[in-house]
Amino acid sequence: MGALFSRMTTHVRRPAAAILLSAAIAWPMVPAPAAARGPEGIADVAEQVIDAVVNISTKQTVDMSSSAMPQLPPGSPFEEFFEEFFKNRRGKNGETPTPRRINSLGSGFIIDASGLVVTNNHVIAGADEVNVILNDGTTLKADIVGRDTKTDLALLKVKPDKPLKAVKFGDSDKLRLGEWVIAIGNPFSLGGTVTAGIVSARNRDIQSGPYDNYIQTDAAINRGNSGGPLFNLNGEVVGVNTAIISPSGGSIGIGFAVPSKTVVPVIDQLREFKEVRRGWLGVRIQQVSDEIADSLSIKPARGALVAGIDDKGPAKPAGIEPGDVIVKFDGKEIKEMRDLPRIVADTPVGKDVAVTIIRKGQEVTKTVKLARLEDTDKQAALTPKTDNPDEKPVVKKALGLDLANLSDDLRKKHNIKDKVKGVLITAVEPDSAAAEKHLAPGMVIAEVQQQPVSNATDLQQRIDKLKKSGKKTVMLLVVTPDGDQNFVVVGLQ
């Protein structure tokens, strides 16, 4: 998540509080405008939902005799303690230290009166004991029903003596920029704390996972707030507080919450199956940049460009091909690349789905029977037509590239797999347009303007023809030696 992004789980360390007192100055008190004070309903909402917000207490035994620090999940609440302990794991006389017990606190909220609790996965990751502490101080042992690392969510179950106060989810899609929201959690192990702010942005991608679409808020969110709820003024949960941007670990007014639109289907599946079952299309995609959109005559730039097809995935028998641009999936518009993985993942496995693509300027609809995404699935590239193994290497120049026909010797030299077909790049001029696009020796050009190429002469002739026709750019399908594909737009001038 980057150096400045922090998960927000706190460890139980209580340093003496430092209190700074300032001299009282008799300046006249001027009441703040009502808008600056915030809506009066915040207190009512907080009072209504506070009993449904809980603290999550986790424990883990650290084996101090181990010679190496264990691998921990990203954002684990035990990470900084392990680092500290393993640096100082030997006693004064060189003796092996005894195992130690580490405690940590995060936040969560009750969604069912029978005892179902939602929190972040990183709050409980690595823990061998999890307890839920209610607002009245009652501690209940919790079992982990299920977890999802891709959205950083987890579902816990406790067994209370009486029905618990529960809260309901709201519709995060209805949130507006500037709308007031309330965060409740356990910052710095202080216990239930209420803060308020506004929605600063929606659909934020902070590069933490494949389905990022965070709500950004300036409500004060700090370490320990992880897994706590973000409420609207109707007392509905519209997000799960998950991350902050902070150089120091404290709030600087940039916090992120997983929207309820993402949370609800994940929690429903954890509740029913104890795991998340996501749809799988079997394509590798990339962003439709303005250059690519121009090359494909798509206005405005939109959709997800198919760069590769998994041979075992459902997209291939449906007739979807590399170079297609997916602009609609199951009736939902694909405005940009990262919309597609979220929509596909939320679609039921086995459903026959209409997929609208743009192929060579024309809209076409394909029907795909969606498969299930497995953690072991690997996306594979589709290979163009085979080249002629008896053809001798021919070196040509185009686009600032030295190009050669693939041969057995060149495949061995660059470790190029047999499934990779096209024209080999053997050298790149340092100041060329191709160098700016990070093309490199060993890569293979499989297509020019969505047409397969099998030899260097053919590729050079196509580039010359495009230049004469007045084209300013050319779209190439470039394949790495391992078979990974990407479309790259290179200037012709």
Task: Please tell me about this protein's structure.
With 493 residues, the chain is of the alpha+beta class. It folds into three domains: 1-11 and 39-276, Beta Barrel (Thrombin, subunit H), CATH 2.40.10; 279-372, PDZ domain (Pdz3 Domain); 396-491, Pdz3 Domain (Roll). It is 17% helix and 33% strand. It has eleven helices and 30 strands. Strands 2, 3, 4, 5, 6, 7, 8 and 9 form an eight-stranded antiparallel β-sheet that branches. A hairpin with a 5-residue loop joins β6 and β7 (139-141). The longest helix has 14 residues, at 260-273. It is elongated and about 80 Å long. The two termini are 38 Å apart.
List the helices and strands and how they pair.
Layout lengths: L4 E3 L2 E2 L22 H4 L3 H9 L3 E10 L16 H9 L12 E13 L3 E5 H4 L4 E5 L5 E3 L1 E6 L4 E5 L22 E6 L7 E12 L9 E4 L11 E3 L5 E9 L9 E5 H14 L5 E2 L2 E5 L2 H6 L8 E6 L5 H4 L6 E5 L2 E2 L5 H8 L5 E8 L2 E8 L1 E2 L23 E3 L2 E5 L2 H7 L8 E6 L4 H4 L7 E5 L2 E2 L3 H13 L4 E7 L5 E7 L2
Antiparallel strand pairs: 1-14, 2-4, 3-4, 3-6, 4-5, 5-9, 6-7, 8-9, 10-11, 10-13, 11-12, 12-15, 13-14, 14-15, 16-23, 17-18, 18-19, 19-20, 19-21, 21-22, 24-25, 25-26, 26-27, 27-28, 27-29, 29-30
